[in-house]
Every structure is written in C-alpha cells, then in structure tokens.
Amino acid sequence: MLTVAQLRACLFLSFTVLLGTCFQLIAFVFQYKLDTYSVFAQKSNPLNVFLAKYAWGWTSIPLLAFMLVYVHTCTTTTINSSTYKRYAAVAIRWTSATLYWVIMTQWAFGNPLLDRVYLSTGHCLTMTNTVEVRSIRQCKSLGGSLTGLDISGHCFLLVHAILTTFEELKPYFKLHTLDSSSALMAHFTSLSKMCLSILSLVLITLGLIWWIMLFTTSLYFHSFIEASSGTLLGMLHWLVLYVVTGSLYPNVLPFDVSLVSQPNKSQKHL
C-alpha cells in the first residue's frame, strides 16, 4: 500500500509527463509550432548532453555517500549485527537501483531491455528497403530509422533517479519535523551535519533539474505512449523495492527516524 507521500510523488511525476504531452497535443491540434529555438528543444543543450543523459551517474554517487553518512550517523559506534544489517540494506538498495538502470539502458546480456523492445516492435527502414539489424547503432550506421516503440529512456532514467532520491531523503527530512528533532540532532557531529546538509542539497538540486528535463522531454521529444511507458518503467523498481518489498521486509527500507529515537527497541527488531 502506498503512503500518502508516495502517492503524491507518483501523481506529481505522472502529471508532469501528462502536462508535457498535453501541450504537445494541443500544439498539434491547433497547428501551433512549439518553440524550437528554446534551449530545451535542442538535443544538444548542455543540460541534456552533460546531465540528463548521465542522470543515474550524477545521482548515484552523492546518493550513496548520503546513504552511508546517514546510516553511520544514526548508528552507534559499536559494531554489532544491527549495524551490519543497516549497511547491508544500503548496499541492497543502491546496488539493485544501479543494476536496474544497467539492465534497462546499458546491457542485458547484449542489448539493454529498452533497446530490445525498440528492435522487436519494428523494423529498420532504409532509403531502399527493410533491413534486419541487431542493434540501434547498426540501423543508424546504415542510414536507416527504426519504426518500433521508442520507450523514452530519458523519462525512465529521470523518474528512476527522482523516486530513489525521494525515498532515501525522506527519513532525513522526517527527522527535522519531529518534536524531538533538536535532541536527536544533538547526537550528530558537526561534520556529519555538514555532510548530510551538503549532500541533501546536491540531491535536491539534481532532482529539480531532472524534473525540468522530464517535462521538456515529454513536451519536445516523445509521444504520450513513449513518455508514459518510460515513466511507468521508471516507477517499477521503486514500487518493487520501496513499496512491495519494504512492506514485507521493513529492514530493507531506509533507516526509520522513529528507530533512531528509540535505539534500544530498534536493536530488538533488527
């Protein structure tokens, strides 16, 4: 079952993609030409070339650093089984998110899954005939174009990064909303406070950039089917890990702030 915060995040990202594709449809119906001179309408724009295409790389490194610092800060200096379990949970979440990105966009014993869908649902059309190809790159090298379902890799990647970041930052910001937050934060060292503040700011800034790029991608570059399918696939890992698996095995989830405030009880359950 989704929490209220999770449902809002899901609806917010879905609405962002829907809004972009609706504007695209309205422009088509009324024969209004979208601003192709906008920097966001160019695939060569710096945000796309240097950031969006490598969204998981930009996100995963500071995210892993944040996860490790947060767990280290919220656990005692004594090495025990519960401490190991918390670090193991971090490893599981970060590794599974990274592997999901690899399988979908980089490599899955050959072509990544998104490419496999694109190739299996269409053909490579050249100027003269239809050609059988084994990769998107091969089709482009022949001067052809593919006719299959081009699931938006950008929508997938950006949604995946945003939702994973959202889940990992949630307990940290929840800590600041508790009545006992000042007492809890008093146990944090100045260095850990500074690291968590800087890393969370970096991740929020990246999340804002990813959200802007998600809207412009759905507005300029993909149809509703392409953008929505990419968005749904971007939500899949989040649903499986943080919603389904998290409800069955809560210890896999990010360290809950309520356990920080009651360390003795938390160790009994971990």
From TrEMBL:
Keywords assigned by UniProt, alphabetized: Endoplasmic reticulum, Hydrolase, Lipid metabolism, Membrane, Transmembrane, Transmembrane helix
A molecular function GO annotation: coenzyme A diphosphatase activity
Domain of life, source organism: Eukaryota
BP-aspect Gene Ontology terms: lipid droplet organization; lipid storage; phospholipid biosynthetic process
Primary location group: endoplasmic reticulum
Signal peptide boundaries: none
Gene Ontology CC: endoplasmic reticulum membrane
Subcellular location per the Swiss-Prot or TrEMBL entry: Endoplasmic reticulum membrane
Membrane disposition: Multi-pass membrane protein
Membrane-spanning segments: 12-34, 54-75, 194-213, 219-244
One Pfam family it belongs to: FIT
InterPro entries per record: FIT
Entries under PANTHER family matching the protein: ACYL-COENZYME A DIPHOSPHATASE FITM2 (PTHR23129)
Protein name: Uncharacterized protein
Organism whose genome encodes this protein: Batrachochytrium dendrobatidis (strain JAM81 / FGSC 10211)
